[in-house]
Amino acid sequence: MKIVVLDDSTTVLLTMRVLLEDLGVEADDILTFEDGLKALSFIEQNGADIIFSDINMPGMNGFEFVEKLLEVSAKFVSVLFVVSGDDTGHSVGQMKKVGGKRFIRKPISSKHFNHFVLPEINKIKSRQNERVPVEEKSAPPLEKVNQYSVNYEELAEKMGIKIKHIPRLMNSFMDESKAIMESLEDAIEYKYYEQIEKYAHSLKGSSGNMHFLDLSELCAMMEFAAREEDAMFDYKEYRDKIAEELSRIGL
After folding, report:
1. Model pTM?
2. What residues contact residue 234 under an 8 Å CB cut-off, 6+ apart?
3. Is 103 helix (H, G, I), strand (E, B) or coil?
4. Rounded CA gap, 187 and 199, in Å?
5. Are 16 and 122 in a shared domain?
6. How many Cβ atoms sit within 10 Å of the Cβ of residue 105?
7. Domain limit, last residue, from 77, 100, 135
8. What's the burial of 132, exposed, middle or buried (CB within 10 Å: 0-12/13-18/19+)?
């Protein structure tokens, strides 16, 4: 079994990975990519049973990826899911035109995800005449320590995943957020609107995925302002507000 997951957020990629692992997919059968061209190249060479693709990504976006994928690789893939928080009618309509028919919304609901994805996994297992056991593995001892101002049990319940996955997800989210904030500071300083939009969008997706909704809303406001190249918007003030929210979480 080969499952390809394409998203520009490492935290979302890890979330998808643990959801799939909880459905019995072996870790080695899950291939994650942040670059559409690399994902497309892998699929053309190796095939894929299920593909998950984000819509808004730098470089090759989801529309271009799906269009190219279905042009050249229809024989390589059995099931394609579009996974995105961009659920506007325009985006959904555009994706349907290029060939994306199945949608999973961010933040990802585990119940929704399992309802649509598990039957496809079972079909693949049936075709391959094999069963993949679900392994219950304990988190490494160092990851059991809660170093963040977050209730792991509540967060696991909100995300609909096992609590053992939360330390890995929190570490991924905080590492990703730190890198984004450093890049965002430079983009704001020099008023690089396209870069501001990209970084705000990325952090919006990651924080929404983790159900940090206040943080996600701040990022969404900055993303919209940058997309409109709104020179009156106080980007530094919002960056400070975002930093405060991250500080409350533990960054």
Report:
1. 0.82
2. none
3. strand
4. 9
5. yes
6. 14
7. 135
8. middle
